Amino acid sequence: MKNILILPGDGIGPEIVAEAVKVLELANDKFALDVQLSHDELGGAAYDKYGVPLADETLDRARAADAILLGAVGGPKWDTIDPALRPERGLLKIRSELGLFGNLRPALLYPQLAESSTLKPEVVSGLDILIVRELTGGIYFGQPRERLVKDGERMAYDTLPYSESEVRRIAKVGFDMAMVRNRKLCSVDKANVLASSQLWREVVEEVARDYPEVELSHMYVDNAAMQLVRAPKQFDVIVTDNMFGDILSDQASMLTGSIGMLPSASLDANNKGMYEPCHGSAPDIAGQGIANPLATILSVSMLLRYSFNEVKAADAIEQAVSQVLDQGLRTGDIMAAGCRKVSTAEMGAAVVAAL
Amino acid sequence: MKNILILPGDGIGPEIVAEAVKVLELANDKFALDVQLSHDELGGAAYDKYGVPLADETLDRARAADAILLGAVGGPKWDTIDPALRPERGLLKIRSELGLFGNLRPALLYPQLAESSTLKPEVVSGLDILIVRELTGGIYFGQPRERLVKDGERMAYDTLPYSESEVRRIAKVGFDMAMVRNRKLCSVDKANVLASSQLWREVVEEVARDYPEVELSHMYVDNAAMQLVRAPKQFDVIVTDNMFGDILSDQASMLTGSIGMLPSASLDANNKGMYEPCHGSAPDIAGQGIANPLATILSVSMLLRYSFNEVKAADAIEQAVSQVLDQGLRTGDIMAAGCRKVSTAEMGAAVVAAL
Ligand SMILES: CC(C)[C@H](C(=O)O)[C@@H](O)C(=O)O
Ligand SMILES: CC(C)[C@H](C(=O)O)[C@@H](O)C(=O)O
């Protein structure tokens, strides 16, 4: 018996998660996964219910679960509350408290959606990059972080720390992923400026000794942002720190033109993980039933693959998604000439039918 | 009499600067600019000559000059020397010592080169963004910055500080630029995570009160990296911190597909400035006479415009560059079918002739 905690979150979160849960429940029956679901809140919805974006009891439930499926958090409704209680703080806290340091963000171009990209087809066709982002360290959580008055003026600062063990464990994830892909790993840093990046590069080089089959390269973050525009297909796996990973993974996902299709995983040392779509909570279209549920459905596939090692079920879900795309079904965000525009629920039902 | 210090730098620096100097000398005669040139070294070339990437006497000369024209610094030759003496340190030091906090990096798509972009023509045609990057503060120069051993393992950290006055002066540059352009300013930060970004946003809002005609927006850096791919023409002026500006300006410049065309300016509080191409020292093609000198020639135009207020001469140089493009002359980096491939010197001579 495995436990999955469902956190629908805010905005379009509940709508898209509802479809993903249907797919998960069918997969549970079909592949005898022996999975049991429980539900709770995170982000703005948690603030509304508990007064905090991540309640202690939710955190306990998350710790007890074998995996977590998350929709998305945030929205203008909570823009004016105490910054320490905003929806994002709940997301950052659950990542940190559960030690979900390994964030996998694939940027994959579906051949059926090649036209959606703003890049020329020859530049992005067949694009398949995996960004491995360090998720529980660096400037996101570094102490001290302070706001003060100095020499009569306001100032504020953040700290960007990395330790050898933090770099080593995320580097290993990068190399392990490269081993099951095309054996090319690009480590991105700013070692010509940052002390933390110099350590990063040094430790990545050390870990590389255990992976002689992987071709390792290093790239400065500014150059990586350029190369992702110039020739994104040169990359297989990219490993980088929390802040650079935040920026580059969003840039990379947008290269596909269909961010509504991209799932993500955040893993701890034992492959327990939280799974969520790459896109946000899209408050502007929430409640209209038009959001694309496929990234969340594909997050279920990642969950089964990475946390439960249920390869067959994971593959079947991916195939079902590919099939509905082949059928020409499209939500508004990926709509194209000659296709049929469907709602969130119709898309979910189509995947269930294909599965 | 105005003094310009010429720092050719490393790699292709000397070749491209030589052509830019020819253009500058002709403009000097033609527009009676009363300019006098002196020469020195920066980066690897300075290390070779003086043993340091920026010698004290060079810094004195730079302080005394009214403007500086720089080629580019760095190369594999200096990869193995003491990190504190690498070419980049000279660049960072001259920026900091001269207080060149205002870095202007235009990303402009030349209609003649529209095909060079990896983005679809409709997404980038007419692209004209100005990135205003804070250049002397933030994590590039923040103290403390340390490498140590803690709990038996190596660790390292950097500090990202910003003060009210640092943010205010760069925000003003952003608003001033927006005023002479399309009056839209987007301030990019990561205020949902960083304390320094919260101060940044607050101070930018305060400065905005003095610019009621400018439409101000705020965007998180990860979203900005996405939007630059999705719909870059939504931007007019972007103002952001040192690190985010490093990444986003490189990304934006690559959207044009012709980074060999893009100049940049780094200004102090009195519009004294250092001017250099956006591209690097390209050691792989150095000495072959094939590099594109146009970004450096356009840096001369920026120099005359921003530091000397010589608008006519600056415009004339830009027009001359546009004319050689119209003539179909192209260096290898921007070569296209139906055009004539020329060398660095031929391109320089063509601009001189057009001028
Ligand atoms: C919401 C925000 C704090 C978060 C981050 O910066 O990590 C988001 O952008 C992401 O990438 O998951
Ligand atoms: C060479 C390097 C230190 C420099 C920077 O990061 O500022 C460069 O990338 C730039 O953008 O001018």
From TrEMBL, chains A, B:
At which positions is Mg(2+) bound?
D222, D246, D250
Q: Which domain of life is it from?
A: Bacteria
* Cofactor: how and how many bound: Binds 1 Mg(2+) or Mn(2+) ion per subunit.
Residues carrying the site annotation Important for catalysis? Y140, K190
The GO molecular function terms of this record are:
3-isopropylmalate dehydrogenase activity; magnesium ion binding; NAD binding
* Required co-factors: Mg(2+); Mn(2+)
Q: Which residues bind NAD(+)?
A: 75-88, 280-292
Q: Which UniProt keywords apply?
A: Amino-acid biosynthesis, Branched-chain amino acid biosynthesis, Cytoplasm, Leucine biosynthesis, Magnesium, Manganese, Metal-binding, NAD, Oxidoreductase
Enzyme Commission numbers on file? 1.1.1.85
Q: Which SUPFAM superfamilies match?
A: Isocitrate/Isopropylmalate dehydrogenase-like
| Location (main, coarse) | cytoplasm
Pathway terms, separated by semicolons: Amino-acid biosynthesis; L-leucine biosynthesis; L-leucine from 3-methyl-2-oxobutanoate: step 3/4
**HAMAP family registered for this protein in UniProt:** LeuB_type1
Briefly, what is this protein's role? Catalyzes the oxidation of 3-carboxy-2-hydroxy-4-methylpentanoate (3-isopropylmalate) to 3-carboxy-4-methyl-2-oxopentanoate. The product decarboxylates to 4-methyl-2 oxopentanoate.
**Quaternary organization:** Homodimer.
The entry's protein name is: 3-isopropylmalate dehydrogenase
Give the source lineage, highest ranks first. Answer: Bacteria, Pseudomonadati, Pseudomonadota, Gammaproteobacteria, Pseudomonadales
Originating gene: leuB
